[in-house]
Amino acid sequence: MSFSDTGLSSDEVRRRIEAGQVNRTDRFTKRTISAIIRNNILTLFVAILTAAVGALLLIGAYDDAVVLGAVTAANILAGIIGELRAKRALDQLAILIRRKITVIRNGSEETIWLDEVVKDDLVVLRSGDPVIADGVIAESSGLFLDESLLTGEADLIAKHNGDPVLSGSYCVWGEGRYFAAGVGVASNAGALTAQAKTYKIFRSPLERAIGQIIRVLIAIMILLSFLIVMANYIQDLPVVASILEIATMIKALVPEGLVLVTTTAFALGAFRSARRHVLVQKLNAVESISHLTVLCLDKTGTLGTNRLIFDGLEVLDATHGDVADQLQAFVGAVREKNETLRTIEAVFPGIPSNLIDELPFSSKTKLSAVQILYRDEEVSLWLGAPESLMQGRAAKAQEDKLAGLRRSGLRVLAFARSQASLKQRGDLNILAFIILRDELRPNVRETVSFFGTRGIKLKILSGDHPETVAAIAMQAGLNVADPVYVGADLDLLTPDEFKTAVMRGQIFGRLVPQQKQKIVKYLQETGEFVGMVGDGINDILALKQADIGIAMKSGAAAALDIADIVLLKNTFAHLPTLAREGDRIIYNIKRVAKLFLTKNVYSLFFVLFSGFVGLPFPLSPRFITWIDLLTVGTPAFLLTLMSAHVPKQTVNDFLRETLGFSLIAGLIIALVSLIVYTDFFLWQNPMANYDKTAALSIVILMGLYIVYYVTPVERKSDSSLMQKAVVWAILAVGLILNVLAVYWGRLSGFIGLVALDAVSWFIIIAAAVVGSIAFHILLKSFRGI
């Protein structure tokens, strides 16, 4: 196929857009509105509750069916709204990490968004630009690409007219143009990114713990449904009674509210993070940060700003003329300057020189060179990593000097001279060490200290020289006492030796992408919860492998696509804030789970009591809904919104803590309320629903006490006035509404309550107080619950 060097016309672009040949993949907040709605409606809980509503309609219990249906719809709607709000905020932030690309259209350059590129576009490629689509080189001017993400090889690849290029590579030298043949998911990187996004399904520790609880409750619900049917059959009770009891039991045991508030908490965490310029691309990522046991960092992009600062010139050999003058000649001769050379140029401006030959910088050889005519003499000037240039040529004093500089956390380049051509190299004379240092990001030391206090092990996985990495790590506050490992040495280790190195080592240098991924994977296999912070294409494999991948906004596009979290301000210091937000999510879900599970426990005892004793079931679907509204659902939702300061949280004992609390609370509430229910049913007042009203009132009074018990942080003297007000409002409004429900005719008639006399209230309040005291004493006797 032939292409035009003037690029596509506007009409050709329009036709390709209509054909869907656009460079778009499923990036950033990949959940669509339809997916959010579908995932909130098509759930097991909704199916069970819908079946219960249908059964109530069949037996003519229309009021109960309406209430249960309304509650189910409200839960669905609340979940959808919460996720849509989070999606909107994240979509707005996602715009900030979109990249712009230069293309040739209608014969002139245009700057467009990356996802506006269409098939057959003529794309301009300059130093630092990513290749965003598969294609063919149309024009090359000294073009060199880094394809390490695609092949694992660190060599720079020269590209000439007609050569193929693949998305995911980067231009590091020269410039050129290429025709975009494969765009979007049809491109190499687009397909890989889409696959990574699609198949990386990860449930956080909190989600897994809640999933265990839900499976147990569903199993109990199925068993109890069978027992209710059998008990009613034996007692020759009507089918209507069985359906009503099963519907009530389902409403009591199905924890749809727990799932809702968990999703709400995750969405709220993402929303709060967005306000701090953090893009959360996976809702459970904020909570997951709190579980980190190991955090791996790429030194260049996380501890440093990716900017170099010139620190000095250490002249080693002045016998070959003015070293500074020769360095300026070298700078002036290099045609394409990378960041390192630009840093040097700021201090030693280039001077014109006659260039004879040039060896561009290679990430594999770690050096570059020029052959020039310097003062009427052909010389070769070399700049690169000392280990690449010295190779036994340096005196011991020079080696000692180099070691001392690196221990101080400095980057060192060797500057050398030879009389031979670039191909022959010849005997190199090391003229000087050029000393550079990395600029640390703000608040790095404070952030490192924060993770240290949380017991999180930090490991540096870098492509830089290990001694330089170790020195920078020490500047950042890491205690580098363990061995420092080099990537090449890791490949020589046996599997057992490699495992030992990974567990002992804290600093790993000269790593290739596959080695970073291998280290992260082994840490996971040993039970560690691993986070990876990176920004380059050499970090993408480790970012994808890690439990939590975190990227900087300034990083490579592929890294941003894979990462679960993107730090839009490029600051490592945001991670402690995210960890604290994760602690709040876990803390809030823990206490919300206690409220829901307490209701499940006493509901379970009610079912067992009714089945074995033979008395009518003390609650109805409308009673359960009323209890939910006053003591579980509304308080749980409001507590989820709280942002109080809490200590570091863990879910290691989530089941023991929540189930232990709920068993004690649920047992006490069931015991006290059933005693009063039985007393009223048999002896106090035989009026219809008098006994059930008494039992309901005790459940609500003790339920409100449970709410009081799980809000110690908000009731502390140093908490905000708003937090105190919310807690006391929950308690006060709950009491007032329940009294209204007992005495206000319309409300009491709808729920099914009757008015209570003063003596009955005395018995109810006394029983609730005794039960609350018993709960408090019993709970204190079990430490850790």
UniProtKB/TrEMBL annotation:
Subcellular locations according to the entry: Membrane
Keyword Transmembrane helix: yes
Gene3D superfamilies assigned: Calcium-transporting ATPase, cytoplasmic domain N, Calcium-transporting ATPase, cytoplasmic transduction domain A, Calcium-transporting ATPase, transmembrane domain, HAD superfamily/HAD-like
GO annotations of cellular component type: membrane
Residue ranges of every copy of the P-type ATPase A domain listed in the record: 97-195
InterPro entries membership: ATPase_P-typ_cation-transptr_C, ATPase_P-typ_cyto_dom_N, ATPase_P-typ_TM_dom_sf, ATPase_P-typ_transduc_dom_A_sf, ATPase_P-type_domA, HAD-like_sf, HAD_sf, P_typ_ATPase
Name of the featured protein: Cation-translocating P-type ATPase
Organism: Candidatus Acidulodesulfobacterium ferriphilum
